[in-house]
Protein: cysteine-S-conjugate beta-lyase
Organism: Sinorhizobium sojae CCBAU 05684
Amino acid sequence: MTYSQPGVPAARKLGAEEFDFGVVHDRSQFGSAKWANQWDEFSPRVEGEGLVSLWTADMDFRAPEPVIARLREAVNHGIYGYTKRDPRHYEIVKSWFERRHNWGVDQATLLPAPAIMPSVAAILRTFTQPRDGVIVQAPVYSPYFQVVRDNNRTLLINRLRLVEGGYELDLNDFERLAANGARAFLLCNPHNPAGKAWTREELESLDSLCERYGILVISDDIHCDIRLNDRPHVVFSSIGEGAAAKSFICTAPTKTFNLAGVPSATLSIADSKRREELFRVMQASFMVNANFFGRIALEVAYTSGDQWLDHLTRYIRDNVNLVLSRAAESLPGISPMRPDASFLVWLDAREVDAKVGGVHRFFVERAGVNLYDGRVYGPGGEGFIRLNVGCPRSVLEEALARMASALSSL
Ligand SMILES: Cc1ncc(COP(=O)(O)O)c(C=O)c1O
């Protein structure tokens, strides 16, 4: 299905130059947090000369050309006033998920949102009470800890089990937490940092426990679009009516198309009462007005970004393969976990970590490479590091060579 809504260019075939992910761009002039090696003025900076920055989760690629072209037109127009999502906006979102993930989401269930984490916070504040338990599965994206704690809820950590170099659910522990005051479960699907795509069976097991103990499920699907193998993305609410009734599905095009700085997100909430209640709360927090550029970027990306995403996925897959082969050849003590989805590779570096007393610092100081310290991801992350492969191959090659050289001196 193509759209020719004014403002959303119809999908067109792109030229090869529009998929040149190998070009190295200098991002420093626009205040890139990743390349400044610091999140914001309130967080510590990672110090080092000429660091290769492969930590926080944005990519070093230009967005799809149709998105850039439309944003350029909007910039040139020069009037950045209030903007409105019309019904086509939601048709575009629906069509994307139908095409890419075979998820026939009912358009009536969709709500607009500024981004994922503010939505998670609003859902927790609306449907749980202070001190209620919220389950998260560690190691995991660290703002999950923050959103639970800073909203005065009780963090219940369900450790994933590390089995033969991959993660598995610990359902016994999940049930123990479920029976001990949990009111909500924050699911990361696919899971960041390991890029694990949860299977239908795994989601069904979680759903049956949540059903038994009356637990709401907030599913963060932000990393769902970059599929690195033939494991499909299974949307939690698609596994059955019970799952749909208890869940909040949070989606965004921001990781997929490298649009984190022009955010826009969409929630799907099948339960109409909860949907209306959340919408009221979001309105009361003035969270529902569209961001001028974010709305445009979402619509054009979801309409015209398929081809770009297919090329990107192949590029990322090759980058992941490069990490795996280099690790086997020249990174002793480092074992990467092959991701099913996303542009993130989780490296088990516990052996090196123990030897050098902190593997993150070791690679910053001895290799000039800044990766994400696994400790940030909570219990189970100690001794791991996360490598962001959303970068040109030459940058990744340089980082891997530097890491190999640092390890060879041990
Ligand atoms: C799992 C996960 N959820 C949410 C986010 C951030 O989403 P947003 O910027 O829309 O709040 C990230 C960014 O890295 C992420 O990895």
